[in-house]
Amino acid sequence: MKFNSQYFKTDILAGLVVFLIALPLCLGIALASGAPLFSGIISGVIGGIVVGFLSNSNLSVSGPAAGLTAIILAAIIGLGSFEALLVSIIIAGFIQLALGYAKAGTISNYFPSNVIEGMLAAIGIIIILTQLPHAIGYDVIHEREFFFIDKNGSSSHLISDIKDAVNFAHIGAIMVTVVSMAILISFNKIGFLQKLKLLPGALVAVVVGTLMNEFFIRTGSPFDISQEHLVNLPIPATLDDFLGQFATPDISAIGNLDVWIIGITIAVVASIETLLCIEAADQIDPLKRFTNTNTELKAQGIGNILSGLIGGLPMTSVIVRSSANVKSGGRTKVAAITHGVFLAGAVLAIPFILNKIPLASLAAVLIMVGYKLASPTVFKHMWDNGKFQFIPFLVTVVAVVATDLLKGVGIGLVVSVFFILKGNLKLAYFFKNEDHVEGQTVYIELAQEVSFLNKAAIKQTIIHLPENSKIVIDASKTVYIDFDVLQLIKDFIAIGAKDKNITVTLIGFRDAYKIENQTHVLSV
């Protein structure tokens, strides 16, 4: 793992913020899955430390997957024990490892950006809606990312839950939420607070919310928030109690066909969710780096194997935690690893302190994360990109909110492909040199119409260009360039070419594409 001291302090603080968000998520997902609460913590620790170390992603944060909640709940009931499920998780891990070596991760290159943007915006909306009950002290809906199942395993209708929440609102929780939101907004808007990089607003909001409730409790105020509305972390009394929270797989279940079917299902769903989240994390990376998705699948596979061996839930890359990581200043994998270390340290050293944190404060943090993902600016940006970008984007938003992540993205992809096929009947991309030698000039000739399906080939070409080389991108015959391909070229010119001292010559690009002249770029 490469260490970059430039971002060390901000990565540590980002890891702390992600830890505060991930802790109740780990517990809530375990509870909704019908699994031991500690299994969620195990998954979070492994996802942070092990997957964080092995992954090629600088920003992705892994942990227990909300998208697998229904599968896990049904599997525990069907298999008859949590220990049998652990065998399925191990099988899923080995399948993911095999997919990584088979280079199946390249499928992520074919997710168009309008669908990824739609997924992010939808997740932002869902985060806000699911956290509103917590924000006013009605904690029926557990923290999760994509869909809603209560602790008994039955479906929960989101709108009716929000209406019920209003009837059972708690004044103390509302006060904590309002103050926490005010702190978060202040840190985003006030200049001198924005410069306090060592003191993130989310951390201040959580600390202040906790102190407010402690004041309510100690003064006998009717506004005090009771324990059921606070973080609820198991507190073992002895070492044996702590070790007893780990579980081992029931190896005798290996011959059960259902165990294998569940393992395959977990592997497929977890891999797709991971690839979606990795692509989304790369999309919001301020440094515009690319993740090797095959390496990511291998890392996830090893993480799930280890999680299954010691009693954890299956994991994926999780966009809620990953986006919170970016927004909190995380820039390298140190942040993800740090969040895992904090999770492990917290359950060992200070569970009684963590259990004082109001869920209302955490809800305020998540609502701000959700707003940034689904702000009006995002919708305006997609509108300005034209109907071919906006319609698939909007369809994805609605579909994800109305169904779940995988179904919604699938619907968005169908709509996006329809528009691409309608406007791009001829797809082609040509380049003259296969072997790139330092100092050599590589010619890329774009066809009459270039779709996002060409993105993977162009991406691989520019990634593997050696330092001090030259590239000529000729769009003289091009009538249409897909937004994804155009953005890829822009990002390469802005960062990749400069970093590797590559001279880029652009030929025939129309003014509508707005690729500005920059250092190392020649326009003809």
From TrEMBL:
One of its GO terms (cellular component) is membrane. Residues 442-524 form the STAS domain. It comes from the Bacteria. It is found in: Membrane. Keywords: Membrane, Transmembrane, Transmembrane helix. The chain crosses the membrane at residues 12-31, 37-54, 61-79, 85-102, 114-136, 168-187, 199-217, 259-281, 302-322, 334-354, 359-379, 391-421. Signal peptide: none annotated. One of its GO terms (biological process) is transmembrane transport. It is a multi-pass membrane protein. PANTHER family: SULFATE TRANSPORTER. This is STAS domain-containing protein. The lineage of its organism: Bacteria, Pseudomonadati, Bacteroidota, Cytophagia, Cytophagales.
